[in-house]
């Protein structure tokens, strides 16, 4: 059963990563943060885009204007700029796409690194709990509750009864010895 659980975890993780590969979400705020952190030029452009005079604007107008400036900045970043007089290897667009790819990879790697241990723990804990539940149902619930033999649960096995009596006799002997020692110290 554990082999099946491990296999299902591996398949789920593979599917999780394939999902990220199939659909790139470049509007995710965490990815955008990773992108902004990746380059001083992008950081400067992002800051200058967001540092504006709020005078005369309502909060809604300011928010809409800020969202529009952010969209324009990222359209510019994502479209890149081709320098036709330079080779394709050194063009700004190629450099930008390399940076975007690296940032997206880092973004996905962080998500997978965070998610995988959670998924493993979730699957393993559920597996253990299900196993315990099945075991308890098989060994306790069915024989004692369903078959109405709950009295059997309360019956001590003979070796347990013998051990309990032996320990009780030892306890009585120890208490007598302690009482005798206390009496000797008083006299």
UniProtKB/TrEMBL annotation:
Q: Name one GO molecular function term.
A: GTPase activity
Under the heading Pfam families, the entry gives: GED
Chain ranges of the GED domain: 94-187
**Leader sequence residues:** none
The name under which this protein is listed is GED domain-containing protein
User: What's the source species for this entry?
Assistant: Aphis gossypii (Cotton aphid)
Taxonomic classification: Eukaryota, Metazoa, Ecdysozoa, Arthropoda, Hexapoda
């Amino acid at each position: 059963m554990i082999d099946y659980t491990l296999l299902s975890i591996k398949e789920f993780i593979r599917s999780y990563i394939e999902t990220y590969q199939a659909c790139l979400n470049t509007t995710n705020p965490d990815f955008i943060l990773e992108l902004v952190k990746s380059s001083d030029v992008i950081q400067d452009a992002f800051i200058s885009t967001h540092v504006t005079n709020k005078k005369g604007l309502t909060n809604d107008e300011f928010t809409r204007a800020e969202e529009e400036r952010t969209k324009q900045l990222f359209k510019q970043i994502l479209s890149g700029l081709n320098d036709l007089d330079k080779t394709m290897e050194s063009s700004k667009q190629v450099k930008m796409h390399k940076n975007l790819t690296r940032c997206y990879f880092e973004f996905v790697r962080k998500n997978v690194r965070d998610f995988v241990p959670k998924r493993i723990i979730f699957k393993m804990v559920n597996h253990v709990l299900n196993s315990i539940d099945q075991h308890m149902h098989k060994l306790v619930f069915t024989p004692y509750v369903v078959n109405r033999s709950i009295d059997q649960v309360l019956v001590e096995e003979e070796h347990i009864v013998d051990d309990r009596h032996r320990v009780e006799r030892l306890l009585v002997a120890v208490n007598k010895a302690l009482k005798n020692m206390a009496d000797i110290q008083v006299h």
